Amino acid sequence: xxxxxxxxxxxxxxxxxxxxxxxxxxxxxxxxxxxxxxxxxxxxxxxxxxxxxxxxxxxxxxxxxxxxxxxxxxxxxxxxxxxxxxxxxxxxxxxxxxxxxxxxxxxxxxxxxxxxxxxxxxxxxxxxxxxxxxxxxxxxxxxxxxxxxxxxxxxxxxxxxxxxxxxxxxxxxxxxxxxxxxxxxxxxxxxxxxxxxxxxxxxxxxxxxxxxxxxxxxxxxxxxxxxxxxxxxxxxxxxxxxxxxxxxxxxxxxxxxxxxxxxxxxxxxxxxxxxxxxxxxxxxxxxxxxxxxxxxxxxxxxxxxxxxxxxxxxxxxxxxxxxxxxxxxxxxxxxxxxxxxxxxxxxxxxxxxxxxxxxxxxxxxxxxxxxxxxxxxxxxxxxxxxxxxxxxxxxxxxxxxxxxxxxxxxxxxxxxxxxxxxxxxxxxxxxxxxxxxxxxxxxxxxxxxxxxxxxxxxxxxxxxxxxxxxxxxxxxxxxxxxxxxxxxxxxxxxxxxxxxxxxxxxxxxxxxxxxxxxxxxxxxxxxxxxxxxxxxxxxxxxxxxxxxxxxxxx
Length: 554
Ligand SMILES: Cc1cc2nc3c(=O)[nH]c(=O)nc-3n(C[C@H](O)[C@H](O)[C@H](O)COP(=O)(O)OP(=O)(O)OC[C@H]3O[C@@H](n4cnc5c(N)ncnc54)[C@H](O)[C@@H]3O)c2cc1C
What we know:
The chain is α/β, with parallel strands linked by helices and 554 residues long. It has helices at 20-23, 35-40, 70-81, 99-102, 134-147, 236-248, 272-280, 282-296, 305-319, 325-331, 348-351, 410-413, 445-465, 475-490, 518-525; strands at residues 60-66, 87-91, 154-156, 160-166, 171-176, 181-189, 196-197, 211-214, 228-232, 251-255, 262-263, 343-344, 357-360, 364-367, 371-374, 379-381, 384-387, 391-392, 401-403, 432-434, 468-473, 534-538, 544-545. Helices cover 27% and strands 18% of the residues. The strands form six sheets. Strands 1, 2, 3, 4, 5, 6, 19 and 20 form an eight-stranded mixed sheet that branches. Helix 3 packs parallel to helix 13 (445-465) and helix 7 crosses helix 8.
């Protein structure tokens, strides 16, 4: 196993940063920001407070939001817009932005068009390119925090370890890794899907004399210039990193276990004139967002066999750029397009034409003191090993030890795999609302997050209106929803056949993916009477109430 630096182990939930140095780039690590971005960047960037607040400062709140990534930020904006001000955002890192703060590896950029990977309530006309890089997205999120004056709600450096439901008081008791605690009527858990890093299971990393790290803990001060580098992995992070690493390294070996289809992206930077046009004409941005919605959100992504085949043919045509027949063959997947997470890069395949870049497909036997040894006994000596091996994606809110009604732990409730009602609530855990929860992964996650947050805020408003102390989704409602969901998932041909380990848990269930269109998810979450699906209790007596169910499932 690759060791995590000590400072990343401080929080019980691991892989967590606590110091400002871990978060802020200290050098020119990211070169992918178009120089014009500086020109266009507003100067309203959110500056984290000097002092990290303890949550003892705010003992009881109406709502505790966990996580200040896009999900937590969206929740905060919508709560404020709904007139709800009594909430805190607890964030373990020393800055906001979630995924886009934590990950800062070379080449990191969005795979979803930026005009669609941005909030409907915070339109940014001046994205510098169609698919923005990490730094530009982080700057955008910081602008949103400033624009909506969210700073006063945000408590940085607070890692929530556990939360216990007190049924009599109808409250959650949260405890943080520094021992401080807080009570809240409701919790919105938005810890993200990609907080836990997955490392290669090869032995020997302890003996390796060089430097090794995961893409999710990219060091600020480690130069790859003129180095011999091993990249382990060939999925989403690897296709973004490889072309950038190859630009500076002396030798690069990419260790591939299984090949993936890689599609190009239309990512020519916007011209100054185009950006000016977007700025002058909000209608043109709205029109572009509408066009992107039509293109990406209206139809289910993988359910059309004909368009899957076209995508695969297109990726196969892109592979033709690889000059060496043997390398091209080994880069050609045997699984259909869509079976694994779709990948996008304009220069991944072509990078293998460079003489100092090697594709290695022999399996890794072990890590040695000097480098990487494969099963055929060959040892490649390297100075740096980059683990582009992805994330543990199936835990969701159970990265925090939630203890619900009857003392049940969320991890135990989900022993067969995470499940929720519309991805947001899970039975036995009253007043716990999840953002980017089970089976909500699809397309633009920001679009999906907005659907979830609107649902949660509507539910909270209905609770207020009806004087409801707690809501707990009815078990039969959640069960029926998930039964139908799994039936729908089985209809997606390309996810069958055992190639989608990224999506599945050991029980065989797919717990991450939403099988329909993004537009369909919005319809499903746009429930006018959300309380009907819940067991509830009024504040005055905390007695469970029976409501008539009037509604449907997917
Ligand atoms: C490398 C990478 C590339 C991606 N590219 C795309 C893309 O192109 N398009 C797309 O739609 N999506 C992409 N995603 C998915 C991306 O994670 C989501 O789009 C989005 O960031 C989800 O927002 P979130 O707030 O739910 O989670 P996150 O962004 O992960 O934020 C979660 C926050 O919660 C905090 N947190 C976690 N646990 C605790 C705790 N116990 N206590 C306190 N705070 C806690 C974390 O520190 C973090 O700040 C990508 C993800 C990764 C990792």
